[in-house]
Write a structure and sequence with these properties.
Elements (H helix, E strand, L loop, with lengths): L6 H20 L24 E3 L5 E5 L7 E4 L9 E5 L10 E9 L8 E7 L3 E4 L2 H4 L3 E6 L19 E5 L7 E3 L1 H9 L4 E8 L10 E5 L13 E6 L4
Antiparallel strand pairs: 1-2, 2-13, 3-5, 4-5, 4-12, 5-11, 6-10, 6-13, 7-12, 8-9, 8-11
């Protein structure tokens, strides 16, 4: 026997179902964060084994070449070595009063063919022995050109009309100077290199004691890229 439906109960059930449906429809789905794609790094405008590009497009920082194109020679006789140092009394067998000089080469292929604004030759890889900058005078950089580093460069003349600058006067530095004319001249002449000789005012002081300025990263007898840098600023593109 079926029980008759109670009108009040039917209405209550219907109302309950309606409220549950209303609540369910009013809830929103949880938001899903979109996948974030990491921005790709900007490629360097110019980069090579011998140079590095700064963040500004009209500034190029070039490392010295190192290797077979660089080294030192005596100032008073023919000879050569691979280390980048200058001063006197290099070793006990070295003639008293004679000194050595440094030869550097920079590849200019990364420099845009535009007007040079400034050029700074610099190094932070310095070691001092004795008192070279007091006893032998200022350390100077002068513009030269050579096709191959060899012992024959010991008495090489500076480039006629070439640039020169005072690279250091104190053992505390700074070890840097401006040589814009050198790079501009190389670009004007379609010469692919900037080359310098570093030497002290006097070859030696005849006191029998070593007075040396050495530039190196790990081994004083090894020249390598990055011991010196040449920062070249050119006019921005119009």
């Amino acid at each position: 026997m079926n029980n008759p439906a109670v009108p009040g109960q039917t209405s209550l059930v219907a109302l309950t179902l309606f409220l549950l449906l209303l609540i369910a429809c009013g809830q929103s789905a949880p938001a899903v964060s979109p996948t974030q794609v990491a921005p790709s790094p900007e490629p360097a405008t110019r980069q090579s084994d011998a140079s590095k590009q700064s963040g500004v497009s009209n500034i190029v920082v070039i490392r010295n070449q190192g290797g077979a194109m660089e080294g030192h020679t005596p100032r008073g006789f023919q000879g050569m070595g691979t280390g980048l140092f200058t001063g006197d009394n290099l070793n006990p067998r070295f003639p008293n009063g004679d000194g050595v000089q440094i030869f550097l080469t920079f590849d200019l292929s990364a420099v845009p063919a535009r007007k040079i604004v400034s050029v700074v030759l610099r190094s932070d890889n310095v070691s001092i022995r004795g008192m070279p900058l007091k006893d032998l005078g200022a350390l100077r950089a002068e513009e030269i050109r050579y096709a191959k580093f060899s012992s024959a460069l010991w008495n090489l003349d500076p480039l006629p009309g070439g640039a020169d600058c005072e690279f250091a006067t104190s053992p505390n530095g700074p070890f840097k100077c401006a040589l814009a004319e050198t790079v501009q001249r190389s670009l004007n002449d379609s010469y692919p290199l900037a080359q310098f000789r570093l030497l002290l005012d006097r070859a030696g002081d005849n006191d029998g004691n070593p007075d040396m300025v050495a530039f190196f990263i790990a081994d004083s007898n090894t020249n390598q890229p990055g011991i010196f840098e040449l920062e070249v600023t050119v006019e921005p593109e119009s």
